Each structure stands twice: as C-alpha cells, then as structure tokens.
Amino acid sequence: MRRTPARRPTMKDIARRAGVSESAVSFALNDRPGVSAATRDRVRRVAEELGWQASTAARALSGEGSATVGLVLARPASTLGVESFFLQLVSGVQEALSRRRLGLLFQVVEDLDAECATYRRWWAEHRVDGVLVVDPCRDDPRPDLLDELGLPAVVIGSMTDDPAAEPPAHPGISNLWADDAAAMASIVGHLHGLGHRRITHIAGLPGLAHTRRRMRSLRAEAERRGLTEVASVTTDYSDAQGAEATRRVLARDRPPTALVFDNDVMAVAGLAAAAERGLSVPADLSIVAWDDSVLCRSTHPSMTALVRDTAAFGRHAAERLIALLDGEAAVRVQDDVPRLAPRGSTAPPR
Amino acid sequence: MRRTPARRPTMKDIARRAGVSESAVSFALNDRPGVSAATRDRVRRVAEELGWQASTAARALSGEGSATVGLVLARPASTLGVESFFLQLVSGVQEALSRRRLGLLFQVVEDLDAECATYRRWWAEHRVDGVLVVDPCRDDPRPDLLDELGLPAVVIGSMTDDPAAEPPAHPGISNLWADDAAAMASIVGHLHGLGHRRITHIAGLPGLAHTRRRMRSLRAEAERRGLTEVASVTTDYSDAQGAEATRRVLARDRPPTALVFDNDVMAVAGLAAAAERGLSVPADLSIVAWDDSVLCRSTHPSMTALVRDTAAFGRHAAERLIALLDGEAAVRVQDDVPRLAPRGSTAPPR
DNA sequence: GATGAAGACTAAAGCGCATTAGTTCGCGAC
DNA sequence: GTCGCGAACTAATGCGCTTTAGTCTTCATC
User: Is B278 exposed, middle or buried (0-12, 13-18, 19+ CB in 10 A)?
Assistant: First the structure.
C-alpha cells in the first residue's frame, strides 16, 4: 500500500496554526516590517514545526525569480565525461550556490545552437534567474543573446583571443578567466629552462577562445625567447585525437622534444602514444599537461601539470553571478594564476 | 545602455491577439477539447509568433509539476571528478529527459544526511517531480524518505547485498541495476581460465550496496570454482587508497597473482604500485579494472576492463523515471550485463 | 416547433506566495 | 477628552496557468 504522500504545508497552514493572517506570516518569514517580534517568533516556530519551505514555483510567479541558475554544456556526448574539469567546476559552483539556496539546472546539449535555444526556453519558462556560460568561442552569439533576454550571466573563460583586447561590453554579463598567457609562459619557461627548443602544443578545440588565446600566448612567448620551432595543433580534446596528434608530430623530420597538452586526457593518451613509438618519457620526450588530475598523478612517470583550483574557479564564478543577481554591476576579473607542478614527465632533452 | 529586457509573452497576450479568451488559449495549446480546429490553429500560430513558452512556475503552481527531476551526488568534494562515470551517466540521463523537456536539477553535497535534507527541501519547494538516486548503500534511508514524501524515484544500482534477496518494496520507487554477479563471474572466469588461483579484489566503499554485492559474488564464484585464496579489501575509491591496498596485499606471504579493482582510477594507481615493487604486468601480476575509461586504454600495458555503456545506463534510468511520472507502476529491472574486454594487463601467471 | 444535447467558447476560481491598500488599536500630545 | 499617528495586523489583488462551472449557439430529434 502506498501511503498517501504527505501534503506540503503552505503559508495558510502556518497562518491558521499561529492564529494570524497569511500576510502576517509572509512578513514574519521574510523579515519585513509589519509584525511584532513576538508574532514573528511564533510564526517562525510554527513554520519550523511544520517543515515549511517556500514553494519556488509560487515565489517565481510573484516576481521573486526562480532561485535557480542554469549551466549548459555544449559538447557532443562522445567527448563528455572524459575530463575531470567539469565535475570539479560544478562542485565549486554548488558550494557557492547552496549558501544562497540556489538550485543548479544542468543541461547537456549537442551544439551551440541548441545551447542558445536552451537559454531562450529557460528564459521564456521563467526557469532560471541567471546562467553560467562555459567554453566561450569566436564570434560567440551567447553574450548578445543573453543580454537581449536580460538574463544575467557569468562567462567562464577568456572571451577574446587576444589577451590585450577589450571584449565587447555586455552590461549584464560578468567575465571571469584564468590567466592563460601567464600559465603558458610558465610552461614554456620551465621547458626552455630544461633546454628544450622544439615544443609542440597539442591544443583543444580550435573554435574556443581560450584555445586561441593559449596558442597566441605560446607564439608570443616563443618569439620572446627566440624559439623558432614551436607550434600548436588543434584537436577535439579526446584521447583519440590526442594520441593521433602525438603520433603525427613525432613522425616529423625534426620532432619536438617536448609536448604541451591542453587537457589531462590527451596528455595521458600522448604518453601511451610515445611509448608505442618506443620513446621513453622523460628521457626522449617531455610532456606537460594543462590541468592536473588523478590521471596525471597515476601515470608512470607522473605528469608535470598545470595545477589550478578548478573548484575555487567555479565557486568564484558562481559568486560573481550571485552578485549580479543582487543587482551589482557586471565585472571582468581575472582569477588566480595557475601554478606549474613539475613532476616526472619533464626533464632535459637528450 | 542596457536595453530593457524583452517581456515574456503570456497567454493573455496570445488571447488578446487571437481574439479569444485565455481559457480557449489554454485548451488550444494543451490539446484539450473545447475549441474548434480553426481556433486551435490560429492560437497555435499566434503563440509561435510571439515565441511563447509556458511558464514552468505557473504550471507548477497549478498542479502540473515542475517539469524537473533531481539528482544529488553525495560525495566529498575531494573524491569528486575522478571518475568519468558520473558525467557519462548524466549525459545519458539528459538525452532521455530532454525529449520530454524535463530539466535536471543537480546538487553536490557532502554526505547522506545532506542528501536527504536536499530531497526534503526540493519536495517542500515543489522543485522536482522525481529524483534519480545513485550509490545505494546499506540501510539506505532514502527509499523510505522518498516514499514518505511521495516523490517518485529511480534507484540506480543494486539495493541489496544479496543478489537473491528481494529488496523491501517501495511502491513509488523503481530500481535499475547492472548485473554485478554476472560481471564478477566473467572476471573470475577470465582469470581462472588463465590459470590464476590467488585473486584479490580491491573494492570500493564498504557501505555501498554494490560493493557488498560484488564481494559476495566474488566469494560465491570462488567457492563454486574451488578457489580458496580469494579475498576482497575495501577502499574509498581514491587512487591513494588503491595504491596503498595494492602494496599491502602484494606484501603478503602468498601474494595474489591477479587483482580486480573496483574502478579505473584505483586500477591505474595499482599498476603504478606494482611497478614500484618491481613487478611486471601482466607477467608477474594481472590486473582487471571495473569500468573502462580513457585511463584504462592509455596505460601501458592497456587495462583489461569491464566495459559497460554508462550513458545508456543513465538513459534507461531516466526513462524509468519518466514512466513513473506518467503514472506507470514501479519496476525493478536489471540493465545490460557488462562485458569484459581482455587487454594487455591480464595473462597467465608465471 | 418545442426539447435536448453537443459544441464552442467565456467567466471565474484556485494554486502559494508577495505586496499594496486598508483597518484597528493603543498611546502620546495638546 | 479628542485628535493624530504609527505599529500591528488583515483583506484583497496579482503573478500565469489549469480547470470547473457556466453561457450561448447550433443542429438533430420526436
């Protein structure tokens, strides 16, 4: 026998039980003037007893917003779930959101168009008060769209290829990014310091702004140091393409002595690809992974990696969004600079 | 200048524009009788023009449910994002949900108590119509709670230690699980077939039902085959404890010749730990990983692993939940049996 | 040609909350 | 002793939608 599910208590129940009107209950629970301290306490106690929680639906309807923020991930299903980045980011986001009892509406879609459609739908359905946008890309349509809808948003990641360029102003949109240029500089510095002069960067998706930014930073840094045999190749972030790219660049006439991978998964795949070729890491080839994870620490040798606190990054982004929801102005801020953790996969070239 | 955000069109707008009453609009848009085909079409066209979408808040308030399902992950932040399992599961879940325009409300919490509190809150706030529950454990308080709240749910994973035992009936709760017994049997069969007689199972969290189920299945299978030197040890799924457990069991007098790890991360860590001891895989030690991933395919040698379609698993779970929401009865079904993919990490013992 | 009934549509209520406009009461001020 | 005023509280309205109860028209029925 299914027990009849408990009925959710409403403000009316509280009102009846506390012997006051519904409005008084509303005032009491929302800390608005209009009730005495005694009544406020009594109402609070009754609400507590009944286990009352405001219905977000009703709240949303009376103009208070939905107490929810959205996050859309536009990645083909195949490349999903390979990186630890997102779950960590999300866990940080949660941390900040839960303090304010905000929910996180999560959606995985195939592509950018579907992502935009999702925003439109969420907006029309009153589902979210704001959104977190990841993977900014070239000619990104999302900031304009979100601005048009009046949906507060925080873009996570650099919005421009060029570190120096000002991104177009979007009044309702904050931007938080990691300093890719400094990070790339520290990687190149580490490798160059070890004596490497031929470095290849196995990058991620070419459409993403941060990919372009990293590539640009790499070129700039190489130029500054007078390194001429430095290049980037792009991939889709998958282990397959990471391995494939590794094989390709290692097959060249003058193969690189060091590889920089744009994520942990590709770095590990690259390590295996090098082993296939009979190359020993780090003796014959040095490898650096952008973003640390268990993967990087579990390989043999363990992976020199760019460590950043992804959860904190997510937390900061969520805090920015909360600030926007509270009516503060949009900001553009740079997050902490990632730190390079040298491990076993990098050494002087042979 | 911030443009004034576009106002969301409501049914009233449609009604005015189509020259009918709001009720007629509601009937038309919901395919209810009470309007002529002509009116229905006209209303539909106007709604389309205006880009109208029903406000989920208003819908929820008038008893239609919130068009949202919830998923809580109770894991300390530290162990989060190490496995690819969850994102893959979620992407499958999405696939099924998005067909019905259901949103996924996602929450990461520290422990089971917080998870239960989340369910209570969601229920009281009318936030979700149903939930997906992962990581069922011993004396799990969640099914009872969800039943009490009348919140439809699908439990993902086996709810009992004993494959033969009937779990307590929860009328509003479906259960979907992978056949751990069969999977364990195939692993033991593979290893025994290669000639291994001393097998140690490096299991996951001892509190989880599926951990206990796997351990039980291992014992049963060993008994059936007359293997006496077979055992399980439990861990917290982390690479650290995986490595630590590996070192411990390999230091025994009669160390095992084969190890079975409950996740990919520990298997890789175990591989490294074996290498430290000077053991060569698979010559001196065979290793099997439960759940395949990039990691398993990227090690050297590549890892013999239990392959299952996690995204499909998530999709099936979400479909079960949708069935519950549609008023169908709860079911208990077993999902596809995982398949063992023999790779380089297993071979006959020396 | 009066009677019913079905069909197309409108009016109104209600969901749970916030909010605005009253209403009542007590108390200090003149 | 009356007036005024603020504090404490209630009544009523609206948010956007669904749904039930009506109203009005038309058309078949005996």
Answer: exposed
